[in-house]
Amino acid sequence: MIHARGLTKTYTLKKTSVDAVRGVDLDVEPGQLVAFLGPNGAGKSTCLRMLTGLLPPTSGTARVAGHDVTTEAAAVRARIGYIGQKGGAGEAFRIGDELVTQGRCYGQTRREARSRAEELLTVVGLDGLFARKPSTLSGGQRRRLDIALGLMNRPPLLFLDEPSTGLDPASRADIWSHILRLRADHGTTLFLTTHYLEEADTMAERVVVIDQGRIIADGTARGLKADLAGDRLTVTLHDPADVPRAAELAAGLPGAAEIAADGPRLTLRVAAADRALPELLRALDTAGLKAEAAESSRPTLDDVFLALTGRTIRDEDA
Amino acid sequence: MPFLRDTATIFSREFAPVWRDPLSLVFTMAQPLLFLYLFGPLLEQGTATPGPAWQWFVPGILIMMCLSGPLMAGYFLLLDLIGGSMERLLVTPVSRTALLVGRTLKEFVVLLAQSVLIIGLAVPLGLDLHVPGMLTGLTLLVVFGVGLGGLSFVLAIVSAPGGELFYGITQVVMFPLLLLSGVLLPVENGPGWLQTAAALNPVTYVVEAERALFAGRFLDAPVVGGVAAAVVTALLGLHLARRRMARGL
C-alpha cells in the first residue's frame, strides 16, 4: 500500500537548510494499522505530507495506493484519505456543506455527495447536525467530523496526523473506536502519527519509530519492547550493605543488564521479569540476604525510545 | 471538464454562506454605504468636484469596494490556510487552479451585486445613468478586482501560517492607495507632491476611467489609462497567484 525509498525533505529556513527527513524507507501492506511514533520535530508530519502528495520530496520516491506520489499525484489523491492535525472544516460553512464540497472535489455528483455525507454523519454520530457550523461542535465532535471528511471518497488507505491529540480521555477512546471499526468493517489500511505512547502500544500492530528524520526502529510494540528495552526488576533489601552481594547474584539472571544500586534498592533489566523475579528471590534467600520488597515492571515504548536514543519522547514534548 | 466542475465546486462552497445569509452582503459594504450617505451629500453642497457631485463620487465608492472586497478574499484564504480546511482540499484531486479561480469568482459576484446595489441607491440621490458606460465600467471594475484578488491571495499564502504580514501590509497599503487615488476629493486641488504620488498610483487611473465611463464618455484619454492599469493589475495578480500555487502550499 505504501512503498517509500530514500525519501528526504530538506527545508531552507532563513538561509540554513534543515534536513527534516533523511532517507526513509518504508513498506506498509494492505490492511495494516501502523503507528508512526517519535518526538515533536522528528519528521512524522513531514513524512505524512510527502506520502499524501502535499509536499514534494527533495529526493526519493514513494508509491502510495499503487501510484507514484510525484508523477501520478491525482491517482494517489483519489485513493487516499487524510485527516490532518488541524480541523478540516472551515468555520464559515455548514458542516454538511463542507462534506458535500469534499465529495464533489472527488468528482462525486451533488446527489452522491449529499447521500454519502448523510451516511457518514450517522456513522460518526453527528446525524441531524448537517446544518450546524463547526463552532457549535465540541472538540470530540469536530474530530469526528474530520474523520467523516477524510472518508468521503471511501479511501482504502487513510492517513491520520495526531488523530486524538488535545482530546479528553473519553473522546480519545471514542475516536479510537471509530478508527478501529473502519478497519474491521472495510479493511482500511491505517497509517497514523501519534506521540501518545500508550495509544501506539495498545492500538497499533506495528510501530515505526522515527527520530531526527530517520527510522530507528520498526516492529510490533511487544517485539520492540522485548528486544530493545526488556523488563525491569526492583528489589529492596533489608540491609543496604547486602546490595553489592545481591547485585552479583542478579548478574547471573538471563539477560541481566543495567544493574544499578540506589541505597537499599537494586534495579536491573532482564529478558523476562515473570521468570527472573522468583529466581532472584530464591537466590537471595539461599545466600541469606533478606529482601523486603520486590517489583517488576513491563517496559513502555518510551523505554524503547530511551534505549535507542538516550532521550525520552516526553522530555521533548515538555 | 474537471477544471470547470472543480471551479463550480469551489465557487458554490465559497458562495453558500452569502447565499444563506444575503444580509451579510450589506454588512460587508457598511463602509461604502456610510460614505454614500454621510460623505456624498457634503460634496453635493460644495464646489470641490469637477462636474456633478454624484457622477464624480459614485465611481469612487465602487473603487473603494473593489479595494476592500478582494482584500477580504485573501483574508478568507488565510483563514483556511491557518485552519486545516485548505490542506483538506489539497489532499483531494481537485484542480489547484480551481481552488483560486472559484474563490475569485465568488468575489466577482459579490462585487457586482454590491456595485449594482450602490448604483441603485445613488440614482434617487441624483446619479444619472449612462447604461452602456456603466456596464463597461463594471467590467473594468471586475477585471481590476480579479487582479487585486490574485495579489491578495499571494500575500495570504506567503503570510501563512502566522498571518501578521497579511494584516500589516493590507493595513499599511489600503488607505494610502485609496486617499492617493482621489476617490474622496479631487487630487487636482492638492499640492504638487501629492499629485505626483497620485500619478504613480494605479488606482488613480482606474478611478478616472470609471468616472469617464459613468458619464458615458468612452473615448476619453483616462479610459485608456484605466483599462491599461486594470489589465496590467489583473495579469500581474493572476500570474503571481498561478506561480505561487504551482510551488505547492
What can you see in these coordinates?
The complex is a heterodimer of chains A (318) and B (249). Chain A has helices spanning 44-51, 73-79, 95-105, 110-123, 139-150, 169-186, 197-203, 221-229, 243-250, 273-286, 301-309, 313-317; strands spanning 2-13, 16-28, 33-37, 59-64, 67-68, 80-83, 157-161, 189-194, 206-211, 214-219, 231-237, 257-262, 265-270, 291-297. With 318 residues, chain A is α/β, with parallel strands linked by helices. Chain A has 2 domains: 2-225, P-loop containing nucleotide triphosphate hydrolases (Rossmann fold, 3-Layer(aba) Sandwich), CATH 3.40.50.300; 231-298, Alpha-Beta Plaits (2-Layer Sandwich), CATH 3.30.70.100. In chain A, a hairpin with a 2-residue loop joins strand 1 (2-13) and strand 2. In chain A, helix 3 (95-105) crosses helix 4 (110-123) and helix 5 runs parallel beside helix 6 (169-186). Chain A is elongated and about 80 Å long. Chain A starts with a strand and ends with a helix. Chain B has one domain (2-22, 29-41, 51-246). Helix content of chain B is 79%, strand content 0%. Chain B has 11 helices and no strands. Chain B has helices at 2-20, 23-28, 30-45, 53-82, 85-90, 96-122, 131-159, 164-179, 192-199, 202-214, 221-246. The radius of gyration of chain B is 18 Å and the shape is globular.
Q: How many structural domains are formed by the residues of chain B?
A: 1
What percentage of residues of chain B falls in helices of 4 or more residues?
A: over 70%
What shape does the CA trace of chain B take?
A: globular
CATH topology of the largest domain in chain A: Rossmann fold
Written as H for each helix and E for each strand, in order along the chain, the element string of chain A is EEEHEEHEHHHEHEHEEHEHEEHEHH
Assembly state of the chains shown: heterodimer
Order of strands, widest sheet of chain A: 6-7-8-3-9-10
Label the structural class of chain B. mainly alpha
Largest sheet of chain A: 6 strands, mixed
The count of helical stretches of chain B stands at 11
Q: What radius of gyration of chain A results from the CA coordinates?
A: 24 Å
Low-confidence stretches of chain B: none
Task: Estimate nothing, just give the exact number of structural domains of chain A.
Answer: 2
CATH architecture of the largest domain in chain A: 3-Layer(aba) Sandwich
Mean pLDDT of chain B: 86
How much beta of chain B, percentage-wise? under 5%
Main sheet specs of chain B: none
Shape descriptor of chain A reads elongated
